[in-house]
TrEMBL record:
Keywords, ordered alphabetically: FAD, Flavoprotein, Oxidoreductase
Name under which the protein is recorded: FAD-binding domain-containing protein
Upper taxonomic lineage: Eukaryota, Fungi, Dikarya, Basidiomycota, Pucciniomycotina
GO biological process: secondary metabolite biosynthetic process
GO MF, one example: oxidoreductase activity
Pfam families: FAD_binding_3 (PF01494)
Transmembrane region(s): none
Source superkingdom: Eukaryota
Span of domain FAD-binding: 8-388
């Protein structure tokens, strides 16, 4: 009887999605799964843009199940004076009702006192802690994966780097982001519409900046909530704490349906632009909002891109996760959370006995049956988040069906996030593992 060799798993891309996947796989290895893990990163070291991200209750639970709760707690801002509030919504636009609070979106704090409120953090800080957890010898740097080729014995990953030979693996996890070259390879191999899978301008830009907590308090008062969404016609400003609450992250969105801000850019970008341009974009907002933006010393403008909702995210022993499979606008604060859920599910699936114990063609067949279940059962949730996020951005800017009717906006806002946050990942994972038992 042939003894099954450790399952070779290659993760391409070392952002939050890729490192969470690698660490979830490492956890499964420590629990007894036979896994040989590699992470390929195109840069000379792991790194992340220092943007603020939101980690909702659903993704917190996933992180804790993967053994990464401590890393989250080290960098997440502590709960404020109203710990179950996600955002307070105010009228940011000058004129009628300016400054009025019209909605509060809350996360229900569980009765056992476990803090599962939305947590905010700097993605670069979080990534630095994930890096420290990664075992030595797993990461391979200066490798830009450009394509792959399934073979009888595995999947060969091809690199753009001169002189670097292909690397063979049993399973390829593509977490190479919104600009994923491997997503293009998947679509080309399957004869699908290449244009459909390309990153597209979401017709928003965002001004970003960080200010000390003291400056924020000077404008809004010491007792003001840190998480506020200031809404207006075709634009909105949000604030939330990072770096343990010492800094306030400011993101000011402008709807750009005429592409006036886009210039010649064809993909995600960020660049410095004059502060005066930012202030002009929000000239119609109230004085507090303008004072807030005025505190930003070194702001930058970011083009917001996303991808279409894909039906196909798997190929022969290949899967897209994170932004490679479902890059979204940031208006639900759920993009990173979906990448974390992806990592949890994929690691658990690859540790399934039907894959672990099989060899050769039987193992290949088991992997592909597993990926079919993943695509059919798991991926639609991430695609729905993509749609929901776009609709959220329109809602915040009076561009949804509710218009600027504050009562209708309140009703929509206070109910729309529950299905994301209240997702029972434990139960769903248990259901899908049982489904794998049946289909394997």
């Amino acid at each position: 009887m042939t003894t099954a060799q450790p399952l070779r798993v290659a993760v391409v891309g070392g952002g939050i999605a890729g490192l969470c996947a690698a660490l979830a796989l490492e956890q499964q290895r420590q629990l007894g799964a036979q896994l040989d893990i590699r992470v390929f990163e195109q840069a000379s070291k792991f790194g992340e843009i220092g943007a603020g991200v939101s980690i909702g209750p659903n993704s917190q639970r996933a992180l804790r199940r993967m053994g990464l709760g401590e890393e989250l707690d080290k960098v997440a801002a502590p709960p404020g004076s109203d710990p179950d509030r996600w955002f307070e919504y105010r009228v940011g636009q000058a004129g009628e009702n300016e400054g009025k609070t019209f909605a509060n979106v809350r996360v229900e704090v569980p009765s056992d006192g476990r803090a599962e409120i939305d947590r905010t953090l700097c993605s670069a800080d979080f990534l630095n802690h994930l890096i420290k957890k990664l075992p030595e010898g797993i990461a391979v740097f200066n490798r830009r994966a450009s394509s792959y080729t399934p073979t009888e014995t595995g999947v060969q990953i091809h690199f753009e780097n001169e002189g670097v030979p292909p690397f063979e693996t049993d399973v390829l996890i593509c977490s190479d982001g919104i600009k994923s070259l491997l997503r293009g390879c998947l679509y080309q191999r399957k004869g699908l519409d290449m244009d459909f899978q390309r990153a597209r301008y979401a017709e928003w830009i965002a001004w970003r900046g960080l200010i000390p907590r003291e400056k924020y308090n000077a404008i809004f008062g010491d007792e003001a909530p840190e998480n506020i969404m200031h809404c207006g016609q075709g634009r909105h400003i949000l604030t939330f704490p990072v770096r343990g609450g010492s800094l306030i992250n400011i993101v000011a969105f402008v709807r750009d349906e005429e592409h006036a801000k886009l210039g010649n850019h064809t993909g995600p970008w960020s660049e410095p632009r004059p502060k005066e341009e930012m202030l002009e974009d929000f000239a119609g907002f109230n004085q507090q909002c303008r004072d807030l933006l005025g505190c930003i010393e070194t702001g930058s403008i970011w083009g917001i891109f996303s991808i279409n909702c894909l039906d196909v995210v798997t190929d022969d022993r290949v899967v897209l996760i994170g932004d490679a499979g479902h890059a979204t606008t940031p208006h639900c604060g759920a993009g990173a959370g979906q990448a974390i859920e992806d990592a949890l599910f994929m690691a658990a699936f690859l540790a399934h006995p039907s894959i672990q114990r099989s060899t050769g063609a039987a193992r290949t067949a088991a992997i592909n049956r597993m990926l079919a279940v993943y695509e059919r059962e798991r991926h639609p949730r991430a695609a729905k988040v993509q749609r929901w996020s776009h609709e959220g951005g329109m809602l915040y800017e009076y561009l949804g069906p509710e218009g600027s009717d504050l009562a209708k906006m309140k009703d929509a806002l206070e109910s729309r996030m529950k299905w994301i946050w209240e997702f029972d990942g434990e139960r769903e994972l248990e259901r899908l593992l049982k489904l794998l038992d049946e289909e394997m």
